[in-house]
Amino acid sequence: MSQPHFNASHDFTHVQRVLTLAEGILEVEQKSNRNTTYDSLTVRLAAMLHDVSDSKYAFPATVASEVPLAQQKLLDFGCPDDVALRVQAIIDSVSYSTERQFPEKVADTLHKHPELAIVQDADRLDALGAVGIGRTFTYNTAANRNGGMEKVLAHFNGKLLQLEALMKTGEGRRLAKGRTERLKLFKEWWEEEINEARSVWEVAKQSNNQ
Prior knowledge:
Elements: H1 12-32, H2 40-49, H3 60-63, H4 69-76, H5 81-93, H6 96-101, H7 103-112, H8 115-125, H9 129-142, H10 148-158, H11 170-209
């Protein structure tokens, strides 16, 4: 579920990709990890709603609501209380920043709701590879961040290249490996081209000082 004020980095196509990835991971994990029981409805609902009330976009009133928005919407549509509560718990623990700030909370949610591993891996996979590169530039532009394109490269090192190590499922790790290699290759090309331009300007600067 995408909200109208979200930019193109978190639009409905992002939701579609995360849902597709989550369903693929779920299928593999159900076959390879038979000791863990996954509820497919929970996986699909959490994948579709994972960005609802994202702090980057949510209005203050949405964040402060007594019943979180995703949970309330599910209840409004007749979803069982336990499913709505479970989906909301996953949404609350899915983000990279939440795991960094509250690792114990995320670990506890993962223990109670193993579906979190699938949705979290699916969301992070969409931050990697060619699509992840496009989304990073899109978000940086929409957020009007200072620092220009160099800030995007810093984001690669500060977050994106860390995601592979945080994957929770075997299938997530397998898919992340290939997508991370694409990020690294792009980063190499980027640095090569930037350094070429810098070299030209340094030569010109030295010539002018002589």
